[in-house]
Specification:
Length: 403
């Protein structure tokens, strides 16, 4: 059987520097016209076929990107919104926990089970890391769905809850707040805790707060959020780039916080409201040491390791409420509940909602860019209190119609 001869199209010619070339034009992946040249029709035809295959491949990958390709695109979009340190964290987490297990798959091929399997190894790590990666996966796939890269979003069946069983962080009760403040009164974390409880600032906003943004002598005293704190290699970096546009806000503050700040200002020798002994913002390790004043006074179980006959033996000790620490009698165990820096902010938001402040105002005061974040907290606060719903249910059925 005779081999079919390749049909070579007829091309126009052009002379460049005394040499005759055959020329054709094709559209690239961006819709722009590009010219191809060769000294023979056969070579130009081969070049044209190769270029067209490359264009088709680029267009295919744009419409059908792999997980790795779309993650790279998503990170590029985020680079205009988030700080450099946040972007580095996103990049590392996506690379280690999303691209490694799923990177070679096309986005449209990924199933809910694939995502669940990718999250399995993270269930053995910290709850914070699990939640961060879970959030990143959802952001990537929801962005792909909005941009019509996907017809079906596999994240719809993925829970937003932590991967490890544990107690949910709830707002502190009034009694717990009173115990906490009594415990840390006169200690380094006191001012930080007051700011968290009564202004709702994020940790990075509190540690970046300077006195030029504290207005105590106004008819309505308030704080202005204009800076954010982060660390690079444990060193503090203060930036005017906030978490979101909504984070830039002015927050009226109650008298108890005004009095606390006024007292702190009289002894301050720094531009920063919370500073180290040199007047500089705290490093990451310094803040951890400050927060240890809270941790060591809680009845949270402690793990100790002792070497017995050459083996490391783990011991768990649970302090008793009201007792003092054996080696440091000045430290008394007064906190029978866990408390984190973010819980202070959550308590502030919850108390606003308990007080009947409308969710839109709470959204502004909290600096939430997405109203869904505020409404989720609002729903949990409102609908987890049966006493709040009793009157609503009764009024809905006040006619008492019998069937």
């Amino acid at each position: 059987m005779a081999k079919k001869k390749m049909e070579i199209p007829e091309y126009g010619t052009i002379t460049l520097k005394g040499i005759q070339y055959y020329r054709t034009r094709i559209m690239d992946a961006d819709g722009k016209q590009i010219s191809l040249y060769a000294t023979t029709c056969e070579d130009l035809y081969k070049k044209q076929l190769a270029a067209q295959r490359q264009v088709e491949e680029i267009i295919f990958h744009r419409r059908h990107p792999t997980v790795a390709e779309y993650c790279e695109r998503w990170l590029l979009m985020q680079s205009a919104k988030v700080s450099a340190s946040t972007l580095r964290g996103y990049t590392a987490d996506l690379k280690n926990y999303v691209i490694k297990p799923l990177g070679e798959m096309y986005m449209e091929e990924v199933t809910t089970d694939d995502i669940r399997l990718a999250l399995v190894p993270l269930s053995k790590k910290s709850e914070g890391l699990y939640n961060t990666v879970n959030m990143l996966i959802k952001c990537v796939f929801y962005a792909a769905e909005r941009n019509q890269v996907l017809e079906h979003n596999p994240c719809e069946g993925i829970s937003g809850k932590g991967g490890k069983p544990g107690k949910r962080r709830e707002a502190l009760t009034d009694q717990q707040v009173a115990v906490l403040l009594d415990t840390v009164k006169g200690l380094p974390p006191y001012l930080f805790i007051m700011l968290g409880l009564y202004s709702g600032l994020r940790r990075e906003e509190i540690l970046a707060l300077q006195w030029d943004c504290v207005f105590l002598d106004e008819p309505t005293p308030y704080l202005s959020v204009r800076r954010a704190w982060r660390t690079e290699h444990n060193r503090p970096v203060i930036s005017t780039v906030l978490k979101t546009k909504a984070a830039r806000r002015d927050i009226p503050i109650p008298k108890c916080l005004v009095d606390c700040l006024r007292e702190a200002k009289t002894t301050s020798h720094s531009d920063y409201v919370i500073a180290d002994s040199k007047g500089e913002p705290l490093a990451a390790s310094q803040f951890q040491r400050v927060w240890q004043y809270v941790v060591v006074r809680s009845t949270k179980p402690r793990n100790y390791y002792k070497y017995v006959n050459g083996q490391s033996i783990k011991y768990t000790v649970t302090p008793t409420l009201g007792m003092t620490q054996k080696n440091q009698p000045k430290i008394k165990y007064t906190l029978d509940f866990n408390v984190t820096p973010h819980q202070l902010r959550h308590t502030y938001i919850t108390n606003l909602l308990y007080a009947g402040v409308d969710p839109k105002t709470v959204q502004y005061l909290a600096g939430h860019e997405n109203s869904k974040t505020t409404m989720d907290i609002y729903a949990k606060v409102k609908y987890n209190k049966p006493e709040e719903l009793f009157g609503v249910v009764n009024s809905a059925f006040h006619q008492g119609t019998a069937y």
